[in-house]
Amino acid sequence: MANFYTDNPSLKLHLSHPMMKKIVELKERNFADADKYDYAPQNYEDAADSYDKVLEVVGEICGDIIAENAEDVDHQGPHVENGHVVYADGTKKNLEACRKAGLMGMSMPRRLGGLNFPITPYIMAADMVSRADAGFENLWGLQDCAETIYEFASEEQKEKYIPRVCEGETMSMDLTEPDAGSDLQSVMLKASQKEDGSWVLNGVKRFITNGDSDIHLVLARSEEGSRDGRGLSMFIYDKRNGGVTVRRIENKMGIKGSPTCELVYKDAPCELVGSRRLGLIKYVMALMNGARLGIAAQSVGISEAAYREALAYAKDRRQFGKPIIEFAPVAEILSVMKAKLDASRALLYACSRFVDMYKIYDDIAKERALTPEEKKEAKYYSKLADAFTPLAKGMTSEFCNQNTYDCIQIHGGSGFMKDYACERLYRDARITSIYEGTTQLQVVAAIRHVTTGTYLNKIHEFEAMEVVPEDEDVKTTLSFMTQQYAAAVEAVMGVKDSSYQDFMARRLVEMAGHIIMSYLLLEDCQRDASVRRSLHVYLKYGQAEVARHADFIENFRPEQISDYLYADKA
């Protein structure tokens, strides 16, 4: 009997972070629901105990059901019958277990059937589900699309759809089209308004995760003759009304239990969400931020699984008369994997706490005017959430890919065989740095927080951290790394050439990421000394990476950019 919550002390460490008390008190409006619902918490301790118990249930389902079904789901996969998806047998069992346990709509308000959880414990559940089966996380985790309905839809729509999600119905976000991938301004699925004021959808969507879901959020062109993002609106499509068929399921490298569909809309009835013309500009941006946090959780969950598989194999596999974990090159790989995992998780939960704070203040602002102090704090956390979301998605997904690569390396030739889970993890990991915005697009989103100083300001806040005496040398090293980073930013921004700045953006974002992740590990170390080993390993790794990027920037002449950008052009 495995439990993916109780066997992972890192989760409880982040659940008990000092910021959580304020997050919970704000989320619960000082526990105003205690008299309305018998399962609502009376105080912070009661709430923390509730999260702990629910996450233990999630951990049990992940360890005993979802993980056990993962290999069979990967082999069987979903298929199409009569224009609709039929899930793999294991996927059906997984969904039923989650529904029975009430693990859908976790972050939705109690009045709409949810558990009213903050984002952070929900992301912990996503972390565990991803460790069990990354493909299933794509079905279960799309419940966070309900956040968009809650934030932007009418009260009538909230009451109509959110309770269904909380009862276990699935969701999807239908954005991508054959000619509109990352460039969503090119979306052409047509939304037409009929004489009675109702709307219908016509066209094709492609690469839609869980595309035959019960409730869809659809980006469509509502303004006749428009060609850019200002002509797009957001709609809800209800599968019960018909009008959408699945043309095909993509035959993917990984996450094979998750059906990625091509959809055909033929006069499909739908409902407008919010205001016309704000579909991409406002609603999809909010939707994608939530999705990117979810992919960061997925990345951390896969990294966790990869590290555990590698560690177990290294302890068990014997060569030259001893376990291979006793060989220094193998031990080094494992140590770096664990450091990257711990750093990824620290960044993930820092980001989720920032998202919690700004979303809760946004919600409170709909009920009453915020005080000047609250407005200031809301603005602060909104900026941090905006800055940390692309950083978390970019860094954790790249480390996820590296960890699954190293997991196979530890297994040697056996890792190349389908007899071991690491082969599936390697395939599942590859998509994390691609969908919901490639790593390159995360850099585009993050670079403005380099140039405006968001990351550097946060780093300076970390510098004021009180640490135990044995960690003072870590602060000294991080101070020097920060100087290298600040000098590199100044050097790049001093060259008034946008192509050059774009070329160097990835290096600057990664430098900021390594410093921030090191500080977050240092912060965790003050509450749990067991993190110190990962801190020291990651610091060495980050120090080398920051130095490498700083050296590249210092010794690179702007005119050399042509060697990279135009070498293959005729």
Give the helices and strands, then pairings.
Blueprint: H1 9-15, H2 19-27, H3 44-76, E1 79-81, E2 84-86, H4 89-100, H5 119-132, H6 134-140, H7 146-152, H8 155-167, E3 171-174, E4 190-193, E5 199-209, E6 215-221, E7 232-238, E8 244-249, E9 260-273, H9 279-316, E10 318-319, E11 322-323, H10 328-365, H11 372-411, H12 421-429, H13 439-451, H14 454-463, H15 472-493, H16 498-525, H17 532-554, H18 561-565
Helix pairs in contact: 2-10, 3-4, 3-5, 5-6, 5-9, 5-10, 9-10, 9-11, 9-12, 10-11, 10-16, 10-17, 11-12, 11-13, 13-16, 14-16, 15-16, 15-17, 16-17
Task: From the structure above, extract its key features.
Butyryl-Coa Dehydrogenase, subunit A, domain 1, alpha+beta, Butyryl-CoA Dehydrogenase, subunit A, domain 2, Butyryl-CoA Dehydrogenase, subunit A, domain 3, 18 helices, 570 residues, seven-stranded mixed beta sheet
Describe the protein in words.
58% of the residues lie in helices and 11% in strands. The protein is of the alpha+beta class and 570 residues long. A hairpin with a 5-residue loop joins strand 4 (190-193) and strand 5 (199-209).
